[in-house]
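Dear colleague,

Following up on Tuesday's group meeting, I ran the structure prediction for the two-component complex that the binding team flagged. I've pasted the input sequences exactly as they went in, so you can double-check that nothing got truncated or mislabelled along the way. The structure tokens for the whole assembly follow below. Feel free to forward this to whoever is handling the docking comparison.

Inputs:
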Amino acid sequence: MSKLRLMITMSLGSYVAGPDQSEENPLGVGGMELHQWFFPLKAFREMHGESDGETNASSPVVEERQANIGATIMGRNMFGPVRGPWPDESWRGWWGEDPPYHHPVFVLTHHQREPLEMEGGTSFHFVSSGIESALAQAKDAAGGQDIWLAGGAAVVNQYLAAGLVNEIDISIAPVILSSGARLFDKLEHGALELEQIRAVDAPGVTHIKYKVG
Amino acid sequence: MSKLRLMITMSLGSYVAGPDQSEENPLGVGGMELHQWFFPLKAFREMHGESDGETNASSPVVEERQANIGATIMGRNMFGPVRGPWPDESWRGWWGEDPPYHHPVFVLTHHQREPLEMEGGTSFHFVSSGIESALAQAKDAAGGQDIWLAGGAAVVNQYLAAGLVNEIDISIAPVILSSGARLFDKLEHGALELEQIRAVDAPGVTHIKYKVG
């Protein structure tokens, strides 16, 4: 059975982005600090064509997260800074022509758009028919593999509230953000039954994995 | 140097209590679930005069938290359900005549009241002159030992915003609370510089310790 796996980094205080997201500041003010633990890793450097980088306690966690993923779901703000109707087809994501997904990515939006075929196996599919439809399409595309629920907070909170997330693997960065996009917001108490699977103490970050009952 | 140490349990989503706190439900709806990891421990059972209980990966964390503490600071809602001016002296805390502190406890309130001498070395001192004054009094009383900042969220957020907290040791429970009292709220980005000291994977909980720079 294909699982929907939330894998994301948040601040101590549950923010996944800072305020004032823009093209210059995709993660909002301070949001980039959340990912400091990831940038020195060999796994990250390799994504960017470099052969250096370190291996530490985060490395097996990253490996585990990347394994058995056949599709990704994300919100539109994670795809780009354009709001409202698409003015044209020029915005093709933050990641250049060879994005680090290498599988189909489903972008939730209220505004329809033709799919984008990128290099390296990544394609972007714009879904305006809601979160359940996006999940069904992602499952079809994943060919039995799991689906990465990547962000942002609004989309994640919708999937959580709908009880559609099977696993949460969250990285908690030693960062305080003042405002922005917050996870685990506006959920009913008892909406989710969580079982802690493991926690990993890594340099500058803690990774906690939960099974959602 | 006497340190102010925040040691508290929060939900995945940063709530330390649920909504609708009352005398029957001191931690609000669902708030008790946060502490499920603590109740089976020998350290908890011993506080309540029992000799049974288990020892697990949380046990050394609890021991470390209890060590070298000479005073506690808490908000008024953590002391009791009475709001507004004290109608009389009858409310003496949630914990009976021998509270599990065994040292002076400073309760922040807008409404003055005479100190309470309890059994077993605990005393409650009501401070209406603000958080800095409470900290100064707690330091005097602690005799060189550290001070436990115990909660609730409003008081903790004030101490964090004022830059007065030296160490954060937070337990994250696999629980979602919908609303209530939230930690790390309304802080300026960059107000706190955190360094992760250690994370402990324990049954049903993760304990993360930060040094505040």
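Chain A touches chain B at residues 11-14, 18, 29-30, 168, 170, 172, 174-178, 183-192, 194-196, 198-206, 208, 210 (CB under 8 Å).

Cheers,
M.
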